[in-house]
């Protein structure tokens, strides 16, 4: 369970970081967002990865936790890259929030 | 003037190629090492008896009694309990003594719970030999192997650092993987694999250097202690304080109170589980006892222990798992390298990271040839050399995977009575690899890749079937299902064969698709227009 949570936190973190980059916004949305709308994703991304780190250290102890985090982060980031490369539209739901704000 | 990035690019390219094949071999066999014990068990499926260790005291007593019968005047008797990923499912009894000339002798027995001999298995090289390949290379002397492995690790470390500097846009291209773009795709894959697994790669390489570092200090030892067969022994004794036996008194010892010692062990080292115990001068009044916890219970590569005076049961020394000095930094790094502490999931992550390391080197090797091919400009001799490297890459990369699979086939198909059977399992591995390299030399690389990748996929996918045909430890019995515990340790090996097989099948499909050049395909389509049948 703790491992799944760690994976979800770091995958969400990498996905948010990925979506904060204009190049990948074009792939996912078809258009890039203005910098002001991208910034929250960057902060969310770093925040989630820090959260995953803290979570691992709390759940497994700091030594084992950091080891687990490195492995989980590798798998999570590769999962994000593969999704972005093969099925970019799958990341689209993550853009709903700012667009709702616009509307 | 050359910029730092340019000079690093040069360093990365040439150190990469120089040791690329060696490092690929080290990553593949080393990754298999994360499942060394699982492979050991897979290779001796007839030895399935599992000893219940919930109450270890009677087991230890039975084993010690056996030790007294076998070697009553031993220097030490050591009893290993089969906890967690123990190397056999049985109790192991190590006995060491001295022969008439004062030389140490060693004997190992594998025992059942009542102290009788465990069933023998077939002779096999096992997972241990497979995993040792990554620094012994099997056919060469130990020191030479360690020097090659150490140099390769140093160059790998240089390649990692120069690679990071050469990678122009490590953050901008963090998530970038462009498909169907030829060399660009290879570069992206190489970068993505390397960057995503960077913590693992740095850890494994640096700790790898540390693991063989004593070999590199050899000249210093030789200068100080002279050149001779006992040099290493003397150095180790002085450096690590090897145990020196106490003279036996000849007085018989009172019986050991193991229960009290076990209770004291648990009180002194809470949270540690008893893994093995040693009796020095067993049966003698001077006897002493040491109870050890499991190395695998923590990342720090040490076995916490409590020492006792055997006669009185008095505690003489306690060594908890604690980071104390700089040597422990090495112990932590080596602990991470070996991953003994890893449970099921973490072990999977270690194995996957190791395989990705192999993938990083494989993509790097292909990239190397792609870049060279662009710059050829009609230089005939350079082209001939490049063709050889391109073709060798096929046999080295895809062929090694097939060779490892062949090793598992050899374990099941070589006759059980064959002389030097364990050696022959290894010969099969290397002969298969050689055959793949020879095959790759006579095939066009595109064809060679597809054929060898597809073949590798096939042999891996068939392994679980072979296992089912030749043993009872197949997925039908080992897979944990609701209502039965199964044997995850064994099922895992077969499941990995399937996953690896599917991975190679996917790679073979990509390789086969890529071969069909769109222009050629169009031309073939035109030709395929039905020719009117000649009138009869």
Structure overview:
- The complex is a heterodimer of chains A (103) and B (536).
- Chain A is mainly α and 103 residues long.
- In chain A, 82% of the residues lie in helices and 0% in strands.
- Chain B has a 7-stranded antiparallel β-sheet with strand order 3-2-1-4-5-6-7, with helices on one face.
- The mean pLDDT of chain B is 88.
- Chain B has helices at 4-32, 36-42, 56-70, 126-136, 142-166, 183-196, 198-211, 213-216, 218-225, 231-240, 258-268, 326-338, 344-374, 380-413, 421-442, 445-470, 475-478, 488-515, 518-527, and strands at 76-80, 91-98, 104-111, 274-280, 288-293, 305-309, 315-319.
- In chain B, 59% of the residues lie in helices and 8% in strands.
- The interface between A and B is medium-sized, with 24 and 26 residues.
Pick out its properties.
heterodimer; A: 103 residues; mainly alpha; 5 helices; B: 536 residues; alpha+beta; seven-stranded antiparallel beta sheet; 7 strands
């Amino acid at each position: 369970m703790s491992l799944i949570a760690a994976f979800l936190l770091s995958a969400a973190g990498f996905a948010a970081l990925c979506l904060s980059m204009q190049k990948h916004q074009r792939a996912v949305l078809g258009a890039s967002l203005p910098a002001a709308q991208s910034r929250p994703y960057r902060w969310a991304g770093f925040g989630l990865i820090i959260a995953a780190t803290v979570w691992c250290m709390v759940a497994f102890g700091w030594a084992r936790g950091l080891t687990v985090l490195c492995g989980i982060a590798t798998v999570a980031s590769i999962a994000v890259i593969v999704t972005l490369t093969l099925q970019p539209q799958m990341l689209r739901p993550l853009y709903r929030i700012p667009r709702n704000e616009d509307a | 003037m050359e910029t730092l990035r340019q000079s690093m690019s040069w360093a990365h390219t040439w150190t990469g190629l120089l040791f690329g094949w060696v490092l690929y071999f080290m990553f593949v066999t080393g990754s298999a090492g994360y499942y060394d014990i699982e492979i050991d068990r897979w290779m001796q499926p007839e030895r399935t008896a599992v000893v219940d260790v919930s109450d270890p005291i009677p087991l230890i007593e039975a084993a010690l009694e056996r030790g007294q019968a076998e070697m009553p005047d031993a220097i030490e008797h050591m009893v290993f309990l089969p906890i967690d990923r123990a190397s056999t499912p049985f109790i192991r009894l190590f006995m060491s003594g001295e022969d008439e000339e004062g030389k140490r002798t060693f004997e190992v027995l594998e025992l059942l719970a009542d102290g009788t001999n465990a069933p023998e298995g077939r002779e096999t090289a096992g997972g241990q030999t497979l995993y040792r390949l990554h620094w012994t290379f099997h056919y060469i002397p130990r020191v030479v192997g360690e020097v090659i492995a150490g140099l390769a690790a140093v160059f790998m470390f240089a390649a990692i650092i120069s690679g990071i500097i050469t990678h122009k846009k490590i953050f901008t291209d963090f998530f970038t993987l462009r498909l169907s773009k030829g060399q660009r795709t290879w570069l992206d894959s190489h970068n993505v694999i390397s960057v995503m697994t960077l913590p693992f790669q740095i850890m494994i390489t640096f700790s790898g250097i540390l693991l063989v570092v004593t070999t590199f200090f050899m000249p210093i030892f030789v200068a100080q202690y002279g050149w001779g067969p006992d040099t290493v022994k003397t150095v180790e004794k002085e450096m690590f304080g090897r145990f020196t036996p106490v003279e036996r008194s000849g007085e018989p010892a009172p019986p050991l109170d193991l229960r009290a010692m076990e209770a004291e062990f648990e009180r002194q080292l809470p949270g540690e589980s008893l893994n093995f115990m040693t009796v020095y001068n067993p049966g003698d009044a001077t006897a002493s006892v040491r109870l050890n916890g499991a190395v695998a219970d923590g990342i720090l590569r040490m076995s916490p222990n409590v020492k006792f005076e055997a006669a009185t049961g008095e505690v003489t020394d306690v060594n908890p798992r604690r980071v104390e000095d700089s040597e422990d930094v090495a112990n932590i790094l080596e602990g991470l390298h070996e991953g003994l502490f890893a449970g099921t999931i973490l072990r999977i992550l270690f194995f996957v990271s190791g395989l990705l390391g192999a993938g990083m080197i494989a993509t790097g090797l292909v990239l190397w040839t792609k870049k060279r091919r662009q710059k050829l400009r009609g230089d005939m001799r350079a082209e001939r050399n490049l063709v050889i490297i391109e073709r060798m890459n096929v046999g080295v990369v895809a062929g090694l995977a097939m060779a490892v699979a062949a090793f598992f086939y050899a374990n099941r198909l070589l006759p059980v009575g064959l002389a030097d059977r364990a050696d022959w399992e290894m010969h099969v591995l290397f002969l298969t690899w050689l055959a793949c390299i020879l095959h790759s030399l006579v095939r066009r690389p595109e064809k060679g890749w597809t054929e060898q990748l597809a073949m590798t996929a096939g042999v891996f996918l068939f392994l679980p079937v072979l296992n089912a045909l030749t043993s009872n430890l197949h997925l039908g019995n080992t897979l944990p299902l609701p209502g039965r515990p199964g044997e995850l340790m064994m099922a895992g090996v077969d499941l990995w064969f399937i996953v690896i097989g599917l991975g190679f099948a996917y790679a073979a499909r990509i390789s086969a698709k890529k071969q069909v050049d769109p222009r050629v395909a169009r031309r073939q389509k035109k030709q395929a227009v039905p020719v009117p049948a000649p009138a009869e």
